[in-house]
C-alpha cells in the first residue's frame, strides 16, 4: 500500500519538471526581451541627450540614431545583418543607407532573394526595389518593416536577415520567435518616438538660434544707434562750439571790419557753418538711403559737361595746396542715365578726399568705358591708405588722419554715402591704394539701366501705361482726320547714344511696344524692310548723316511714306521745331526726353 501510494507522488514530480523548465525558459525569454529593450533605450537616450544638452559639443543626427538602431538590433537578435533603406515617396527603388557592424572580419556579406530568384548583397549603397520591400513586409515572419518617414519626406525601411546559429553553434530557440517579433515591433515604436523627439528638439534649437541671432542683431543695432548718436553729438558739437565761441568773442570785443583778427573769426565761423551743414546733409542722406526714401531724379546726363563743372568746384581747394587738377575723358564718352545731383555728389566726395590727403603732386578725374560700364576714376599722388585702414573706410564716422595737414575736418560719412549712392545706380565702388604712392577710387556705373534706375523706369512706364492707352483710344477716334495711324506695335529707334537708346527701349517696351534699336543710317536701311514699323524715332544728330536728311530720303520711298516719324533732338531753339516738321517728320520731342510725353506721342501714331 505504501508503494502504491508513493507512485503518484513520484509521477507528480516528473510531470512537474517540464512545467518548471517551461516557466524558467519563459522567465529567461522575458528577461532577454526586457534587458535588450533597456539596452536599446539606453543607447538611443544617450544619443538623444547628448544632443539635447545645452553644453554638448556633439551634434546628434537622424543618421546616428538610425545607425544605433541597426547595431543594437544585430547585437540583441544575434542575426547576420540589419540594414536600413531609404527612398523618395514615389521612387521605384530604395538605397541601403545604414548597415550593422561586422561581428567579425570573416562574416560573409548576407544575401536576400531579389527579383525572381536573383540575390542582392546587403552592402552599403546597394539598391533594392520598393516592391520587394513591401513583399518582405508581408512575409511570415516578416523581414522588412516601415519606420517613420524623416523630416525631408524620405521613406525609411528596416531590413533584418534570418537569424544565424548562436555563439555555441546552436540555433535560437523557436520560442523566441514571437518574442523576436515583439522586440522588433517595440524597437520600431521606440525608434520612431526618439526620432520624433529629435526633430522636436531640432525645431526648438532652431527657434532658439533664430531668437539668439535676432537678439544679437538687436543688440548690435542698439550699439550702432548709441554709437551713431554719440558720434553725431560729438561731430555736431565741434563746429557748433566754434561758431558759438567766436561769435561770442566778436560780440564781446565789438566787431570791427578792419581788424584782421575779426576777419579770421568770421572765416572760422563760416567754415564751421559749412562743415555743420555738410554733416547734417550727410546724416540726412544716409538716413534716407537706409530707409529707402531717398528721392532720385533720373536724367540723361552730358557726362563731359558735368565732370568739368565738378572740377571747377574743387579747383580753389586744390590751388590752395598747390595741387594740379587733371581731367581725362575718352572721346566716346557722351551721355549717361543717372541722377545728376547725386553723381556730382559722389564725384565731389571723392575729389575733396583726394585733395585732403594729397600734400603735393596731382589730383585727377579719368572717365573711360569698360565693357558695359562707365568708369569714373578719381586718383591722387597723396599719402595712400594702408590695408588696415581700407577696411575701415566705409564705416560711419571712420576717418584717416593726414599727418601732413593741419586741417583734418570731415564728417566721416562721405565715403559711406558715396558707396550707397553708387549701389542705388546699379554700380559698385572699387579702391586701389598703396601707402605713400596715392589712391584711386573708381565708380563703375552701368551704361544700360540697372538697379534702381531700371526699377524707376519700369515703375514710371506702368504708371503712364493707362494714360498712354487713353491717348491711343483718342487717336483712334481721330482717324477721320487721316492721321498716319497704324495697328502695329513695332517701333524703330534710330539713336547712336546708348544711354538714350536704352532709356527709350526699356520704357516703351514696358508700354507693350516692340522696339528695334539701330545706331546709324546703314543699320536703319537693313532693318526697315523686315519690319512693319508704326513709328520711327529719329535722332537728328547721327554719326554718319543728319537725321533730317534721312527723313527726307525716307519720304521719297512710297512704302515708307505712311510711317510716322518723331524727331528727337537736343535742338530747342526758336524755329527748330518748324525745321524738323518741314523735313517731313510728324512730331518733335526735345532732349532730355520726357518719357510720359514720348509715350503719348508714340501711342498717338500706333
At CATH's second level, what is the architecture of the largest domain?
Answer: 2-Layer Sandwich
Give the termini separation.
133 Å
- Low-confidence runs (pLDDT<50, min 5 residues)? 1-12, 55-59, 103-107, 164-175, 479-483
What oligomerization state is this entry in? single chain
Domain module count: 3
Overall form:
flat
Return the CATH class of the largest domain: Alpha Beta
Radius of gyration: 43 Å
Structural class: alpha/beta
Mean pLDDT: 78
Helix content: 40-55%
Strand count, sense and barrel status of the largest sheet are: 5 strands, antiparallel
Q: CATH topology of the largest domain, anyone?
A: Beta-Lactamase
Percent of residues in beta strands: 15-25%
Query: Can you list the strand order of the major beta sheet?
Result: 5-2-1-7-6
Count the beta strands. 19
Number of helices: 15
Lay out the secondary structure:
Blueprint: H1 2-52, H2 62-77, E1 82-87, E2 93-99, E3 111-114, E4 118-121, E5 127-129, H3 130-138, E6 144-147, E7 155-160, H4 176-253, H5 260-290, E8 299-302, H6 303-320, E9 324-329, E10 335-338, H7 340-356, E11 362-370, E12 373-380, H8 387-390, H9 414-424, E13 428-434, E14 438-446, H10 451-477, E15 490-494, H11 498-510, E16 514-518, H12 521-527, E17 533-539, H13 547-555, E18 564-569, H14 576-583, E19 587-590, H15 595-605
Parallel strand pairs: 9-11, 15-16, 15-17, 17-18, 18-19
Antiparallel strand pairs: 1-2, 1-7, 2-5, 3-4, 6-7, 8-10, 11-12, 12-14, 13-14
